[in-house]
């Protein structure tokens, strides 16, 4: 489970880094707090950060539970895909929000696999 803990910590650090990018964009584009919009590029950074938070709410517990019920190594591998996918999402969303689909899909897929795996594994243990 150490790999799972490392992956979750890396995902959290990535989220913090995305938050720092929002802060930098706030300064660069002159969007004063507490405003959450005001310049198109700032808005994109802000949305990437917010969308990542929305995914993290499911990603963190799914990764942990999958590691417990199914496989810690697979949980870490799927988590690594999620982390890389969020970078793809960031880059594509900043460049053109209409092209964010691949990054979103690659982020959602590992979460979906883990949720299904948790349900199957926990259900099998319950029935055993």
Summarize the structure.
The protein is mainly alpha-helical. It has helices at residues 2-28, 40-69, 72-95, 101-127. Helix 1 (2-28) packs antiparallel against helix 2, helix 2 (40-69) runs antiparallel to helix 3 (72-95) and helix 2 (40-69) packs parallel to helix 4.
Describe the protein's architecture and organization.
Helices cover 84% and strands 0% of the residues. The protein is mainly alpha-helical and 128 residues long.
How would the global form be characterised?
Answer: elongated
Task: Write the H/E string, N to C.
Answer: HHHH
Query: What Rg do the Cα atoms give?
Result: 17 Å
CATH superfamily: Membrane associated eicosanoid/glutathione metabolism-like domain
**Amount of beta strand:** under 5%
Question: What does the secondary structure layout of this molecule look like, with pairings?
Answer:
Layout: H1 2-28, H2 40-69, H3 72-95, H4 101-127
Helix pairs in contact: 1-2, 1-3, 2-3, 2-4, 3-4
């Amino acid at each position: 489970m150490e790999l799972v803990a490392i992956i979750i910590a890396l995902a959290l650090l990535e989220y913090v880094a995305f938050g720092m990018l929002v802060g930098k964009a706030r300064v660069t584009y002159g969007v004063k707090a507490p405003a959450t919009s005001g310049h198109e590029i700032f808005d994109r950074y802000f949305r990437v950060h917010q969308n990542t938070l929305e995914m993290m709410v499911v990603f963190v517990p799914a990764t942990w539970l999958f590691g417990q019920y199914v496989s810690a190594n697979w949980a870490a591998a799927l988590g690594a895909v999620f982390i890389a996918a969020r970078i793809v999402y960031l880059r594509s969303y900043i460049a053109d929000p209409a092209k964010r689909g691949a990054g979103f899909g690659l982020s959602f897929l590992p979460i979906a696999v883990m949720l299904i795996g948790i349900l199957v594994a926990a259900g099998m243990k319950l029935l055993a």
